[in-house]
């Protein structure tokens, strides 16, 4: 019998709990990844189970769908992650994220990291969908309103005055870049209705964190996350989720940015 | 009949114009990429056409050759972009960039991002050249002058006093690193005559922007771009081009750096 | 007869010396890479030989094992470097780094860049080990002490007060992230005994430099490198080694951080 207070029993418990969560999210795939590490790096498999799954995926504050969306965003941003994206797009489907939400999460990232990262991830998503026998009813935006006008509305609603400041600050040097932010990022992309504003911000914050060198944009989009109804604790959970996929340095830098945003709004993190 | 002033007609026009430019640059490849997205992400294909091609590639200020060189530089820097590099090295050839210029643009990037990114891109270039049936007459540098001496001359001509300051600032901590910058970056690499100084700076600015975490070096090389004859508007166009490949955050950070460089020189951006 | 003082003789000497070192480290593989570039970019092959091998790998201050460990760390961090990792894990084995050290160097990087980069590199390592006919006796940590307790001990020993400050600064916003740093990064990972503390810091500093946007973490880990017995000159050598794999901008930024750390400790770089 394991005694719950001894360290070794606690370790066993973490491993078993992690393996159960991993199984729930990935079927046999998760155990296969752990087994495949047994030949040269068995402890690495154990760390995946204990730290990524028992410690992080099992945390409260975000549900498994939200954690998978954040993970997919971080992996897409990181690049050179096709096999991990395969695993986590599969897991996202298993925990109930819809194919359309996965596609929309990736489309949402175009303004933040350009087409290549997104097109690579879409290619992975297509293969995983086929593997699941999922047929996607592709969604197509049909909105005749002026792109600038609807973009400006979205910009103010999501980013508030801060978004307008960014756009205005570009007018002396690159008015067209300012226009593209309004028309494309907010008129075309943010305008899409198939992923909730909260989930869009989750994915954005996770992806910007993993991408690196994005502190000013993280400040804007952590603010936007709060604006659309995420709590400070949910923002911190999103960052915590990214730790397993992009490491502590990226996340600690993002935490510093989050703290500044919370302090300006007199918010504290209460889980 | 479409009425030219209605938003939907304007949207059609952007799509048709984008598709025409994409076709001019890529033959059937471009349409194939758009078609391949129809199953799960049709709007993503539309955004490629409308935003990347109708909005960005069709802009004045840089010609298609310059835009493709900037794009190739950004993609090489980003990494995990073999399929996009295949597409854009092919497009670069179609719009008239020579194979030697493409190779030289990549060789030029070694000091900025090391051998791996460049060797990966060279492998892609070789495959595209073979696909085009292009035979490259490989160019080989033959210059007996002392590498340090010719490097120092190039450094002063291109970067001005700022370049010397960077080199001097290293002498207390790493004099050899300073020497490599002079001998290798400027004596070996910048010394090569097969890509114009303006195009070298275009590629450098695009690549540094996409690479990320390069603000001090971007300041030096935006300055160098001005020194070799690019206008502020051309620098901003180069950054605008990168948006489609590395996203707004990288580009907005680079715009901030560009503004500081322009202000120090009392330059304004006049298209 | 070459006259040793003429520039052309000196160039020949660099090439021959570089080729000899490359051969020592890679057998026929190195020459094959150089030959493969002869068709479109012969000078690029020459630069690999002359700059990466004759100038950098041949430097004093770090031995070839340490240089290969730093290189493997930088390549793993950079991503999209499977072919370069294949080459340098092979070279690491040839110069005497043990398979277990290679695996441990990669496992050590999980907290710094997450699982995906490490799992990709482990896959490459497995293939190289198989190619060498090397059988790895996988090492498994077995330590019943409380993870937090042993982690806190390691943290103080390696990072000193600075490590505790980082952990404390997280307590208001993310106490669990602070706990994971202690339990996982220092209790699980740093606690592993199969790679020396000096080599761990070499790999960490090289990887953080190549990863980018890690200035605060580089400051901590350059400090830790000094704490475990590396000299300032060895830290600078590690950064110099990274230049060939991630370019000058990343390294110049890291040099700036290193200078600040050295100055705070009143250390100068004496080779």
Write up this protein.
The structure is a homotrimer of 271-residue chains. The radius of gyration of chain A is 20 Å and the shape is globular. The two termini of chain A are 34 Å apart. Chain A has helices at 7-26, 28-36, 42-57, 64-78, 82-94, 99-108, 110-131, 147-159, 161-169, 175-189, 197-211, 215-227, 232-264. Chain A is mostly helical and 271 residues long. Helices cover 75% and strands 0% of the residues of chain A. Chain A contains 13 helices and no strands. The first copy, chain A, has a domain at 1-58. In chain A, helix 5 (82-94) packs across helix 7 (110-131). Chains in contact: A-B, A-C, B-C. At the A-B interface, helix 6, helix 7 and helix 10 of A face helix 1, helix 3 and helix 13 of B.
